[in-house]
Amino acid sequence: MKTFEDYVQRLYKMKPNVYISEEKVGRDDPRLKGGMRIIKETFDKAHEPEWEDICTATSHLTGKKINRFCHIHQSEDDLLKKQLMTRQLCHRCGGCIQRCMGIDSLNALSVITYEMDQALGTDHYIRFNKYMEYFQENDLVASCAQTDAKGDRLKRPHEQVDPDQYLRVIETREHGIVVRGCKVNITNTPYADEMIVVPCRYMGPEDKDYAVAFALPTDWDGVKLLTRPANFRKSKFAEAPVLEIGDCETFIIFDDVFVPNDRVFLNGHGDPRQTPYAGFLALMFAHYHRHSYTGCKPAVSEVIASAAALVAEYNGIENTSHARDKISHIIGTAELVFAAGESSAKHSEKAPSGTQVPDEILTNAGRRLAGEMIYEEYKILADLSGGLIATLPFEETFFSEEVGELAMKYLQRNPRVKPENILRCFKGIEGMAVSDLAGVMQVAGLHGGGSPQMETITMMMRYDIEKLKDIAKYLFGIKKKLKRYERPTVTPRKQLEKFREAMLRKRNQE
Ligand SMILES: Cc1cc2nc3c(=O)[nH]c(=O)nc-3n(C[C@H](O)[C@H](O)[C@H](O)COP(=O)(O)OP(=O)(O)OC[C@H]3O[C@@H](n4cnc5c(N)ncnc54)[C@H](O)[C@@H]3O)c2cc1C
Hints:
Number of strands: 14
Shape: globular
Radius of gyration: 24 Å
CATH class of the domain at 288-462: Mainly Alpha
Bound molecules: flavin-adenine dinucleotide
Mean pLDDT: 96
Protein backbone atom coordinates (compact mmCIF):
# COMPACT_ATOMS: atom_id res chain seq x y z
CA MET A 1 0.00 0.00 0.00
CA LYS A 2 1.15 3.55 -0.71
CA THR A 3 1.02 6.65 1.47
CA PHE A 4 -0.56 10.06 1.00
CA GLU A 5 2.90 11.49 0.33
CA ASP A 6 3.50 8.91 -2.47
CA TYR A 7 0.17 9.94 -4.00
CA VAL A 8 0.95 13.67 -3.87
CA GLN A 9 4.39 13.10 -5.42
CA ARG A 10 2.75 11.19 -8.29
CA LEU A 11 0.29 14.01 -8.88
CA TYR A 12 3.00 16.67 -8.89
CA LYS A 13 4.76 14.83 -11.75
CA MET A 14 1.69 15.09 -13.99
CA LYS A 15 1.51 17.39 -17.02
CA PRO A 16 -0.50 20.55 -16.37
CA ASN A 17 -3.86 20.10 -18.12
CA VAL A 18 -6.22 21.61 -15.50
CA TYR A 19 -8.03 24.76 -16.66
CA ILE A 20 -9.44 27.00 -13.92
CA SER A 21 -11.02 30.18 -15.30
CA GLU A 22 -8.48 31.36 -17.88
CA GLU A 23 -5.46 29.70 -16.30
CA LYS A 24 -3.88 26.35 -17.09
CA VAL A 25 -2.47 25.00 -13.83
CA GLY A 26 -0.55 22.03 -12.41
CA ARG A 27 -1.60 19.70 -9.61
CA ASP A 28 0.22 21.92 -7.11
CA ASP A 29 -2.39 24.68 -7.51
CA PRO A 30 -3.64 25.59 -3.99
CA ARG A 31 -7.27 25.34 -5.13
CA LEU A 32 -6.86 21.56 -5.51
CA LYS A 33 -5.55 21.07 -1.97
CA GLY A 34 -8.98 20.80 -0.28
CA GLY A 35 -9.85 17.76 -2.40
CA MET A 36 -6.46 16.14 -1.77
CA ARG A 37 -7.01 16.69 1.95
CA ILE A 38 -10.09 14.48 1.72
CA ILE A 39 -8.23 11.74 -0.18
CA LYS A 40 -5.57 11.88 2.58
CA GLU A 41 -8.04 10.26 5.00
CA THR A 42 -8.29 7.23 2.72
CA PHE A 43 -4.52 6.68 2.70
CA ASP A 44 -3.83 7.51 6.35
CA LYS A 45 -6.54 5.34 7.84
CA ALA A 46 -5.47 2.27 5.82
CA HIS A 47 -2.12 2.45 7.67
CA GLU A 48 -3.61 2.80 11.18
CA PRO A 49 -4.15 -0.48 13.12
CA GLU A 50 -7.42 0.83 14.58
CA TRP A 51 -8.88 1.29 11.07
CA GLU A 52 -7.21 -1.59 9.26
CA ASP A 53 -10.20 -3.96 9.52
CA ILE A 54 -12.46 -1.76 7.43
CA CYS A 55 -9.97 0.30 5.38
CA THR A 56 -7.93 -2.58 3.96
CA ALA A 57 -8.81 -5.80 2.15
CA THR A 58 -7.07 -8.84 0.64
CA SER A 59 -6.70 -8.71 -3.13
CA HIS A 60 -8.46 -11.61 -4.86
CA LEU A 61 -5.86 -11.26 -7.64
CA THR A 62 -2.59 -11.28 -5.69
CA GLY A 63 -3.50 -12.21 -2.10
CA LYS A 64 -1.78 -9.01 -0.95
CA LYS A 65 -3.13 -6.55 1.58
CA ILE A 66 -4.56 -3.55 -0.32
CA ASN A 67 -6.45 -0.35 0.35
CA ARG A 68 -10.18 -1.15 0.33
CA PHE A 69 -10.66 1.65 -2.23
CA CYS A 70 -8.78 -0.62 -4.69
CA HIS A 71 -10.76 -3.78 -3.95
CA ILE A 72 -13.20 -5.83 -6.04
CA HIS A 73 -15.82 -7.01 -3.54
CA GLN A 74 -15.79 -10.77 -3.10
CA SER A 75 -18.35 -11.27 -0.34
CA GLU A 76 -21.23 -9.83 1.65
CA ASP A 77 -18.68 -8.88 4.32
CA ASP A 78 -16.73 -6.82 1.75
CA LEU A 79 -19.85 -4.85 0.85
CA LEU A 80 -20.71 -4.27 4.50
CA LYS A 81 -17.17 -3.12 5.32
CA LYS A 82 -17.08 -0.80 2.30
CA GLN A 83 -20.36 0.78 3.43
CA LEU A 84 -19.17 1.16 7.02
CA MET A 85 -15.77 2.55 5.95
CA THR A 86 -17.52 5.10 3.72
CA ARG A 87 -19.78 6.25 6.55
CA GLN A 88 -16.91 6.55 9.03
CA LEU A 89 -14.53 8.38 6.69
CA CYS A 90 -17.23 10.79 5.55
CA HIS A 91 -17.84 11.78 9.19
CA ARG A 92 -14.18 12.79 9.37
CA CYS A 93 -14.41 15.09 6.31
CA GLY A 94 -17.88 16.46 6.87
CA GLY A 95 -19.01 15.08 3.50
CA CYS A 96 -18.17 13.06 0.40
CA ILE A 97 -14.98 10.96 0.64
CA GLN A 98 -14.54 11.26 -3.16
CA ARG A 99 -12.57 8.03 -3.70
CA CYS A 100 -15.55 5.71 -4.22
CA MET A 101 -16.52 6.56 -7.83
CA GLY A 102 -13.39 5.00 -9.33
CA ILE A 103 -13.63 1.71 -7.48
CA ASP A 104 -17.40 1.51 -7.98
CA SER A 105 -16.87 1.67 -11.75
CA LEU A 106 -14.08 -0.92 -11.55
CA ASN A 107 -16.38 -3.32 -9.69
CA ALA A 108 -18.97 -2.84 -12.45
CA LEU A 109 -16.32 -3.48 -15.12
CA SER A 110 -15.22 -6.67 -13.38
CA VAL A 111 -18.76 -8.04 -13.75
CA ILE A 112 -19.44 -6.88 -17.31
CA THR A 113 -16.06 -7.61 -18.94
CA TYR A 114 -16.31 -11.18 -17.63
CA GLU A 115 -19.78 -11.54 -19.14
CA MET A 116 -18.59 -10.19 -22.49
CA ASP A 117 -15.74 -12.68 -22.63
CA GLN A 118 -18.07 -15.59 -21.86
CA ALA A 119 -20.64 -14.66 -24.50
CA LEU A 120 -18.47 -13.10 -27.22
CA GLY A 121 -15.08 -14.75 -26.75
CA THR A 122 -13.32 -11.39 -26.24
CA ASP A 123 -10.38 -10.90 -23.84
CA HIS A 124 -11.64 -7.89 -21.90
CA TYR A 125 -11.70 -9.56 -18.50
CA ILE A 126 -8.06 -10.64 -18.87
CA ARG A 127 -7.09 -7.05 -19.80
CA PHE A 128 -9.19 -5.75 -16.98
CA ASN A 129 -7.53 -7.97 -14.37
CA LYS A 130 -4.06 -6.91 -15.56
CA TYR A 131 -5.11 -3.29 -15.23
CA MET A 132 -6.59 -4.05 -11.80
CA GLU A 133 -3.31 -5.55 -10.58
CA TYR A 134 -1.50 -2.39 -11.67
CA PHE A 135 -4.19 -0.28 -9.97
CA GLN A 136 -3.91 -2.19 -6.70
CA GLU A 137 -0.11 -2.36 -6.70
CA ASN A 138 0.15 1.42 -7.05
CA ASP A 139 -2.81 2.17 -4.73
CA LEU A 140 -4.29 4.46 -7.37
CA VAL A 141 -7.03 7.04 -6.95
CA ALA A 142 -9.59 7.17 -9.77
CA SER A 143 -12.53 9.26 -10.82
CA CYS A 144 -15.41 7.78 -12.77
CA ALA A 145 -16.49 9.68 -15.87
CA GLN A 146 -19.96 8.46 -16.75
CA THR A 147 -22.17 11.54 -17.32
CA ASP A 148 -22.02 12.78 -20.91
CA ALA A 149 -22.85 16.31 -22.03
CA LYS A 150 -25.99 14.63 -23.49
CA GLY A 151 -27.24 17.57 -25.62
CA ASP A 152 -30.97 17.25 -26.29
CA ARG A 153 -32.24 15.13 -23.38
CA LEU A 154 -34.99 13.50 -25.45
CA LYS A 155 -32.70 12.33 -28.26
CA ARG A 156 -30.54 9.21 -28.34
CA PRO A 157 -26.79 9.64 -28.94
CA HIS A 158 -26.92 8.96 -32.71
CA GLU A 159 -29.93 11.30 -33.10
CA GLN A 160 -28.16 14.39 -31.70
CA VAL A 161 -27.53 17.27 -34.10
CA ASP A 162 -23.94 17.39 -32.83
CA PRO A 163 -22.70 13.77 -32.76
CA ASP A 164 -20.10 14.63 -30.07
CA GLN A 165 -22.69 15.25 -27.32
CA TYR A 166 -22.02 11.73 -26.08
CA LEU A 167 -18.44 10.44 -25.93
CA ARG A 168 -17.76 8.24 -28.96
CA VAL A 169 -15.11 6.24 -30.76
CA ILE A 170 -14.16 7.95 -34.00
CA GLU A 171 -11.55 5.42 -35.08
CA THR A 172 -10.55 1.86 -34.19
CA ARG A 173 -6.90 1.22 -35.00
CA GLU A 174 -4.79 -1.91 -34.64
CA HIS A 175 -3.35 -0.86 -31.27
CA GLY A 176 -6.19 1.14 -29.82
CA ILE A 177 -9.08 3.55 -30.34
CA VAL A 178 -9.48 7.30 -30.78
CA VAL A 179 -12.27 8.93 -28.73
CA ARG A 180 -13.95 12.33 -28.89
CA GLY A 181 -16.46 13.96 -26.55
CA CYS A 182 -16.94 15.43 -23.11
CA LYS A 183 -17.91 14.00 -19.74
CA VAL A 184 -19.46 16.59 -17.40
CA ASN A 185 -19.98 17.02 -13.64
CA ILE A 186 -17.07 14.71 -12.85
CA THR A 187 -15.80 14.82 -9.27
CA ASN A 188 -12.14 14.73 -8.12
CA THR A 189 -10.43 14.27 -11.54
CA PRO A 190 -7.62 16.89 -11.20
CA TYR A 191 -6.36 15.06 -8.11
CA ALA A 192 -7.05 11.53 -9.34
CA ASP A 193 -4.35 9.37 -10.95
CA GLU A 194 -6.72 7.76 -13.40
CA MET A 195 -10.18 8.21 -14.81
CA ILE A 196 -12.44 5.27 -15.53
CA VAL A 197 -14.72 6.14 -18.43
CA VAL A 198 -18.04 4.28 -18.85
CA PRO A 199 -21.24 4.89 -20.87
CA CYS A 200 -24.10 6.76 -19.23
CA ARG A 201 -27.07 4.97 -20.78
CA TYR A 202 -28.46 2.09 -22.81
CA MET A 203 -27.11 2.13 -26.39
CA GLY A 204 -29.09 0.73 -29.33
CA PRO A 205 -27.45 -0.73 -32.46
CA GLU A 206 -27.26 2.75 -34.11
CA ASP A 207 -25.40 4.02 -31.04
CA LYS A 208 -22.59 1.46 -31.36
CA ASP A 209 -19.85 4.13 -31.62
CA TYR A 210 -20.94 5.41 -28.20
CA ALA A 211 -20.62 2.02 -26.49
CA VAL A 212 -17.16 2.57 -25.07
CA ALA A 213 -15.33 2.10 -21.76
CA PHE A 214 -11.67 2.59 -20.89
CA ALA A 215 -9.19 3.87 -18.30
CA LEU A 216 -6.58 6.61 -18.74
CA PRO A 217 -4.23 8.70 -16.61
CA THR A 218 -5.88 12.06 -16.02
CA ASP A 219 -3.07 14.00 -17.76
CA TRP A 220 -3.09 11.87 -20.93
CA ASP A 221 -2.43 13.57 -24.28
CA GLY A 222 -5.53 15.35 -25.60
CA VAL A 223 -7.35 15.30 -22.23
CA LYS A 224 -8.35 18.74 -20.93
CA LEU A 225 -9.83 19.20 -17.45
CA LEU A 226 -12.09 22.28 -17.20
CA THR A 227 -12.36 22.50 -13.45
CA ARG A 228 -14.48 24.32 -10.91
CA PRO A 229 -12.92 24.13 -7.44
CA ALA A 230 -15.05 24.88 -4.38
CA ASN A 231 -13.63 25.42 -0.91
CA PHE A 232 -14.73 26.77 2.43
CA ARG A 233 -13.40 30.14 3.56
CA LYS A 234 -10.33 29.21 5.59
CA SER A 235 -9.97 30.15 9.24
CA LYS A 236 -7.09 32.40 10.24
CA PHE A 237 -7.53 31.99 13.95
CA ALA A 238 -8.62 28.43 14.55
CA GLU A 239 -8.01 25.05 12.99
CA ALA A 240 -11.12 23.08 12.06
CA PRO A 241 -11.09 19.93 9.91
CA VAL A 242 -14.27 20.88 8.07
CA LEU A 243 -12.73 24.15 6.85
CA GLU A 244 -9.77 22.34 5.24
CA ILE A 245 -11.79 20.31 2.77
CA GLY A 246 -12.69 21.10 -0.82
CA ASP A 247 -14.01 19.68 -4.04
CA CYS A 248 -13.44 19.95 -7.78
CA GLU A 249 -16.05 19.27 -10.44
CA THR A 250 -14.83 18.96 -14.00
CA PHE A 251 -15.78 18.92 -17.66
CA ILE A 252 -13.37 16.32 -19.10
CA ILE A 253 -12.74 17.09 -22.76
CA PHE A 254 -11.48 14.24 -24.94
CA ASP A 255 -10.00 16.10 -27.89
CA ASP A 256 -9.45 13.11 -30.22
CA VAL A 257 -7.65 11.01 -27.64
CA PHE A 258 -5.83 7.75 -28.40
CA VAL A 259 -6.53 4.92 -25.92
CA PRO A 260 -4.24 1.86 -26.17
CA ASN A 261 -5.95 -1.53 -26.39
CA ASP A 262 -4.81 -2.75 -22.97
CA ARG A 263 -6.90 0.04 -21.46
CA VAL A 264 -10.03 -0.46 -23.57
CA PHE A 265 -12.80 -2.47 -21.88
CA LEU A 266 -15.73 -1.97 -24.29
CA ASN A 267 -15.73 -0.94 -27.95
CA GLY A 268 -18.95 -1.19 -29.96
CA HIS A 269 -17.34 0.72 -32.83
CA GLY A 270 -14.72 -1.97 -33.40
CA ASP A 271 -17.07 -4.85 -32.56
CA PRO A 272 -20.81 -3.98 -32.70
CA ARG A 273 -21.64 -7.19 -30.78
CA GLN A 274 -20.35 -5.40 -27.67
CA THR A 275 -22.90 -2.56 -27.93
CA PRO A 276 -25.64 -4.15 -25.75
CA TYR A 277 -23.20 -4.31 -22.83
CA ALA A 278 -23.06 -0.50 -22.63
CA GLY A 279 -26.43 -0.17 -20.90
CA PHE A 280 -25.67 -3.05 -18.56
CA LEU A 281 -22.36 -1.43 -17.60
CA ALA A 282 -23.99 1.98 -17.12
CA LEU A 283 -26.54 0.52 -14.72
CA MET A 284 -23.99 -1.65 -12.93
CA PHE A 285 -21.77 1.35 -12.17
CA ALA A 286 -24.79 3.35 -11.01
CA HIS A 287 -25.74 0.39 -8.84
CA TYR A 288 -22.36 0.12 -7.08
CA HIS A 289 -22.22 3.87 -6.70
CA ARG A 290 -25.70 4.05 -5.20
CA HIS A 291 -24.67 1.35 -2.76
CA SER A 292 -21.71 3.56 -1.76
CA TYR A 293 -24.24 6.36 -1.26
CA THR A 294 -25.92 4.26 1.42
CA GLY A 295 -22.65 4.70 3.33
CA CYS A 296 -21.82 8.34 2.59
CA LYS A 297 -25.28 9.84 2.65
CA PRO A 298 -26.11 8.66 6.19
CA ALA A 299 -22.82 10.27 7.20
CA VAL A 300 -23.78 13.55 5.51
CA SER A 301 -27.15 13.42 7.30
CA GLU A 302 -25.39 12.69 10.59
CA VAL A 303 -22.99 15.59 10.06
CA ILE A 304 -26.01 17.85 9.47
CA ALA A 305 -27.87 16.37 12.47
CA SER A 306 -24.80 16.78 14.64
CA ALA A 307 -24.44 20.45 13.66
CA ALA A 308 -28.19 20.97 14.16
CA ALA A 309 -28.02 19.46 17.66
CA LEU A 310 -24.96 21.54 18.59
CA VAL A 311 -26.39 24.81 17.33
CA ALA A 312 -29.67 24.03 19.12
CA GLU A 313 -27.68 23.70 22.36
CA TYR A 314 -25.73 26.91 21.68
CA ASN A 315 -28.97 28.72 20.88
CA GLY A 316 -30.38 27.40 24.18
CA ILE A 317 -33.28 25.54 22.48
CA GLU A 318 -32.00 21.96 22.54
CA ASN A 319 -34.70 20.66 24.88
CA THR A 320 -37.61 22.23 23.07
CA SER A 321 -39.91 19.68 21.50
CA HIS A 322 -39.75 21.14 17.99
CA ALA A 323 -35.93 21.05 17.93
CA ARG A 324 -35.85 17.41 19.06
CA ASP A 325 -38.56 16.46 16.60
CA LYS A 326 -36.75 18.07 13.65
CA ILE A 327 -33.40 16.49 14.50
CA SER A 328 -35.10 13.09 14.86
CA HIS A 329 -36.18 13.27 11.21
CA ILE A 330 -32.60 13.67 10.01
CA ILE A 331 -31.41 10.81 12.24
CA GLY A 332 -34.30 8.66 11.02
CA THR A 333 -33.34 9.22 7.37
CA ALA A 334 -29.69 8.44 8.06
CA GLU A 335 -30.56 5.19 9.81
CA LEU A 336 -33.01 4.08 7.13
CA VAL A 337 -30.62 4.79 4.26
CA PHE A 338 -27.81 2.91 6.01
CA ALA A 339 -30.17 0.04 6.82
CA ALA A 340 -31.18 -0.17 3.14
CA GLY A 341 -27.51 -0.50 2.16
CA GLU A 342 -26.81 -3.08 4.87
CA SER A 343 -29.83 -5.08 3.87
CA SER A 344 -28.86 -4.85 0.23
CA ALA A 345 -25.43 -6.29 1.14
CA LYS A 346 -27.17 -9.08 3.06
CA HIS A 347 -29.32 -9.85 0.00
CA SER A 348 -26.29 -9.57 -2.32
CA GLU A 349 -25.27 -12.27 -4.80
CA LYS A 350 -22.11 -13.38 -6.52
CA ALA A 351 -21.91 -12.52 -10.20
CA PRO A 352 -20.39 -15.27 -12.37
CA SER A 353 -17.11 -13.26 -12.30
CA GLY A 354 -16.99 -13.79 -8.52
CA THR A 355 -17.73 -10.11 -7.79
CA GLN A 356 -20.36 -9.56 -5.10
CA VAL A 357 -23.35 -7.51 -6.31
CA PRO A 358 -25.73 -5.76 -3.87
CA ASP A 359 -29.53 -6.02 -4.14
CA GLU A 360 -30.87 -3.43 -6.56
CA ILE A 361 -34.28 -2.60 -5.12
CA LEU A 362 -32.94 -1.98 -1.63
CA THR A 363 -29.95 0.03 -2.86
CA ASN A 364 -32.07 2.24 -5.10
CA ALA A 365 -34.78 2.70 -2.47
CA GLY A 366 -32.12 3.86 0.01
CA ARG A 367 -30.38 6.18 -2.42
CA ARG A 368 -33.66 7.72 -3.56
CA LEU A 369 -34.80 8.44 -0.01
CA ALA A 370 -31.46 10.13 0.64
CA GLY A 371 -31.78 12.28 -2.49
CA GLU A 372 -35.32 13.29 -1.75
CA MET A 373 -34.56 14.33 1.83
CA ILE A 374 -31.37 16.30 1.32
CA TYR A 375 -32.93 19.79 1.08
CA GLU A 376 -35.25 19.01 3.99
CA GLU A 377 -32.19 18.28 6.12
CA TYR A 378 -30.48 21.54 5.18
CA LYS A 379 -33.78 23.32 5.87
CA ILE A 380 -33.84 21.91 9.40
CA LEU A 381 -30.23 22.97 9.96
CA ALA A 382 -30.98 26.52 8.75
CA ASP A 383 -34.20 26.58 10.80
CA LEU A 384 -32.49 25.65 14.10
CA SER A 385 -29.43 27.83 13.41
CA GLY A 386 -31.31 31.05 12.78
CA GLY A 387 -30.14 33.70 10.32
CA LEU A 388 -26.61 34.14 11.68
CA ILE A 389 -25.20 31.40 9.43
CA ALA A 390 -25.90 33.71 6.48
CA THR A 391 -24.99 37.03 8.13
CA LEU A 392 -21.99 36.28 10.37
CA PRO A 393 -19.38 39.07 10.12
CA PHE A 394 -16.04 37.84 8.81
CA GLU A 395 -13.92 35.99 11.36
CA GLU A 396 -11.29 38.78 11.48
CA THR A 397 -13.92 41.18 12.84
CA PHE A 398 -14.16 39.13 16.04
CA PHE A 399 -10.41 39.54 16.61
CA SER A 400 -10.17 43.20 15.62
CA GLU A 401 -8.67 45.47 18.25
CA GLU A 402 -11.36 48.06 17.81
CA VAL A 403 -14.60 46.06 17.48
CA GLY A 404 -13.66 42.46 18.34
CA GLU A 405 -14.89 42.58 21.92
CA LEU A 406 -18.17 44.13 20.87
CA ALA A 407 -18.67 41.53 18.16
CA MET A 408 -18.05 38.68 20.66
CA LYS A 409 -20.40 40.28 23.21
CA TYR A 410 -23.32 40.20 20.79
CA LEU A 411 -22.57 36.63 19.74
CA GLN A 412 -23.31 35.39 23.25
CA ARG A 413 -26.47 33.32 23.63
CA ASN A 414 -26.52 30.14 25.80
CA PRO A 415 -24.65 31.49 28.88
CA ARG A 416 -22.91 28.14 29.45
CA VAL A 417 -21.11 28.35 26.08
CA LYS A 418 -18.05 30.52 25.46
CA PRO A 419 -18.52 33.02 22.59
CA GLU A 420 -15.34 31.65 20.89
CA ASN A 421 -17.06 28.27 20.56
CA ILE A 422 -20.26 29.91 19.36
CA LEU A 423 -18.14 31.59 16.67
CA ARG A 424 -16.57 28.26 15.66
CA CYS A 425 -19.99 26.60 15.50
CA PHE A 426 -21.56 29.29 13.33
CA LYS A 427 -18.51 29.53 11.09
CA GLY A 428 -18.62 25.74 10.62
CA ILE A 429 -22.32 25.78 9.74
CA GLU A 430 -21.79 28.80 7.48
CA GLY A 431 -19.34 26.61 5.54
CA MET A 432 -21.67 23.60 5.55
CA ALA A 433 -24.86 25.43 4.63
CA VAL A 434 -24.26 28.72 2.81
CA SER A 435 -20.83 28.55 1.16
CA ASP A 436 -19.94 27.83 -2.44
CA LEU A 437 -19.04 24.25 -1.47
CA ALA A 438 -22.29 23.85 0.51
CA GLY A 439 -24.25 24.52 -2.67
CA VAL A 440 -22.26 21.86 -4.51
CA MET A 441 -22.88 19.35 -1.70
CA GLN A 442 -26.61 19.99 -1.74
CA VAL A 443 -26.90 19.37 -5.48
CA ALA A 444 -24.57 16.37 -5.13
CA GLY A 445 -26.96 14.97 -2.52
CA LEU A 446 -29.80 15.23 -5.04
CA HIS A 447 -28.19 14.30 -8.39
CA GLY A 448 -24.89 12.55 -7.54
CA GLY A 449 -25.17 8.83 -8.29
CA GLY A 450 -28.23 9.59 -10.41
CA SER A 451 -31.24 11.81 -9.82
CA PRO A 452 -34.12 10.30 -7.75
CA GLN A 453 -36.01 9.75 -11.01
CA MET A 454 -33.21 7.42 -12.15
CA GLU A 455 -33.58 5.33 -9.01
CA THR A 456 -37.32 5.14 -9.62
CA ILE A 457 -36.75 3.91 -13.17
CA THR A 458 -34.27 1.25 -12.00
CA MET A 459 -36.54 0.03 -9.21
CA MET A 460 -39.54 -0.25 -11.48
CA MET A 461 -37.48 -2.14 -14.09
CA ARG A 462 -36.55 -4.76 -11.51
CA TYR A 463 -39.73 -5.00 -9.45
CA ASP A 464 -42.34 -7.48 -10.62
CA ILE A 465 -45.59 -5.53 -10.16
CA GLU A 466 -47.66 -8.44 -11.51
CA LYS A 467 -46.49 -10.63 -8.63
CA LEU A 468 -47.16 -7.81 -6.21
CA LYS A 469 -50.78 -7.58 -7.39
CA ASP A 470 -51.37 -11.16 -6.22
CA ILE A 471 -51.76 -9.84 -2.67
CA ALA A 472 -54.65 -7.57 -3.66
CA LYS A 473 -56.16 -10.26 -5.90
CA TYR A 474 -56.20 -12.66 -2.92
CA LEU A 475 -57.59 -10.07 -0.51
CA PHE A 476 -60.34 -9.08 -2.92
CA GLY A 477 -61.31 -12.67 -3.64
CA ILE A 478 -60.12 -12.57 -7.26
CA LYS A 479 -57.53 -15.30 -6.58
CA LYS A 480 -58.27 -18.10 -4.15
CA LYS A 481 -54.72 -18.78 -3.00
CA LEU A 482 -51.82 -16.57 -1.98
CA LYS A 483 -48.38 -18.14 -2.27
CA ARG A 484 -45.79 -17.65 0.47
CA TYR A 485 -44.29 -14.17 -0.04
CA GLU A 486 -41.03 -13.76 -1.91
CA ARG A 487 -39.67 -10.30 -2.75
CA PRO A 488 -40.81 -9.81 -6.36
CA THR A 489 -37.48 -8.68 -7.79
CA VAL A 490 -35.32 -9.76 -10.68
CA THR A 491 -31.92 -10.15 -9.02
CA PRO A 492 -28.66 -9.05 -10.70
CA ARG A 493 -27.59 -12.67 -11.13
CA LYS A 494 -30.85 -13.57 -12.87
CA GLN A 495 -30.45 -10.55 -15.17
CA LEU A 496 -26.88 -11.55 -16.01
CA GLU A 497 -27.92 -15.14 -16.76
CA LYS A 498 -30.81 -14.02 -18.97
CA PHE A 499 -28.62 -11.54 -20.79
CA ARG A 500 -25.88 -14.11 -21.38
CA GLU A 501 -28.37 -16.64 -22.74
CA ALA A 502 -29.78 -14.05 -25.15
CA MET A 503 -26.30 -13.04 -26.32
CA LEU A 504 -25.25 -16.69 -26.84
CA ARG A 505 -28.46 -17.41 -28.77
CA LYS A 506 -27.79 -14.41 -31.00
CA ARG A 507 -24.19 -15.50 -31.55
CA ASN A 508 -25.27 -19.04 -32.50
CA GLN A 509 -27.76 -17.66 -35.02
CA GLU A 510 -25.10 -15.51 -36.73
C1 LIG B 1 -21.80 17.48 -7.38
C2 LIG B 1 -21.99 16.43 -8.42
C3 LIG B 1 -21.03 15.46 -8.59
C4 LIG B 1 -21.15 14.51 -9.60
N1 LIG B 1 -20.14 13.60 -9.79
C5 LIG B 1 -20.19 12.77 -10.86
C6 LIG B 1 -19.10 11.90 -11.15
O1 LIG B 1 -18.11 11.85 -10.42
N2 LIG B 1 -19.17 11.11 -12.25
C7 LIG B 1 -20.26 11.13 -13.08
O2 LIG B 1 -20.26 10.40 -14.07
N3 LIG B 1 -21.31 11.95 -12.83
C8 LIG B 1 -21.30 12.76 -11.75
N4 LIG B 1 -22.36 13.60 -11.48
C9 LIG B 1 -23.44 13.64 -12.44
C10 LIG B 1 -24.76 13.12 -11.96
O3 LIG B 1 -24.78 11.72 -11.96
C11 LIG B 1 -25.79 13.73 -12.91
O4 LIG B 1 -25.84 15.13 -12.60
C12 LIG B 1 -27.13 13.11 -12.80
O5 LIG B 1 -27.10 11.81 -13.33
C13 LIG B 1 -28.16 13.94 -13.57
O6 LIG B 1 -27.75 14.14 -14.91
P1 LIG B 1 -27.73 15.61 -15.51
O7 LIG B 1 -26.98 16.50 -14.59
O8 LIG B 1 -27.26 15.52 -16.91
O9 LIG B 1 -29.23 16.08 -15.46
P2 LIG B 1 -30.36 15.72 -16.51
O10 LIG B 1 -30.28 14.27 -16.86
O11 LIG B 1 -30.37 16.71 -17.59
O12 LIG B 1 -31.63 15.91 -15.59
C14 LIG B 1 -32.36 17.13 -15.48
C15 LIG B 1 -33.85 16.78 -15.40
O13 LIG B 1 -34.27 16.25 -16.65
C16 LIG B 1 -34.93 15.01 -16.45
N5 LIG B 1 -34.67 14.20 -17.64
C17 LIG B 1 -33.46 13.92 -18.21
N6 LIG B 1 -33.61 13.16 -19.29
C18 LIG B 1 -34.93 12.94 -19.45
C19 LIG B 1 -35.73 12.22 -20.40
N7 LIG B 1 -35.16 11.56 -21.42
N8 LIG B 1 -37.06 12.21 -20.21
C20 LIG B 1 -37.65 12.86 -19.17
N9 LIG B 1 -36.94 13.58 -18.24
C21 LIG B 1 -35.61 13.61 -18.38
C22 LIG B 1 -34.31 14.44 -15.18
O14 LIG B 1 -35.14 13.47 -14.54
C23 LIG B 1 -34.14 15.70 -14.34
O15 LIG B 1 -35.35 16.01 -13.70
C24 LIG B 1 -22.29 14.52 -10.44
C25 LIG B 1 -23.30 15.47 -10.23
C26 LIG B 1 -23.16 16.42 -9.24
C27 LIG B 1 -24.24 17.44 -9.06
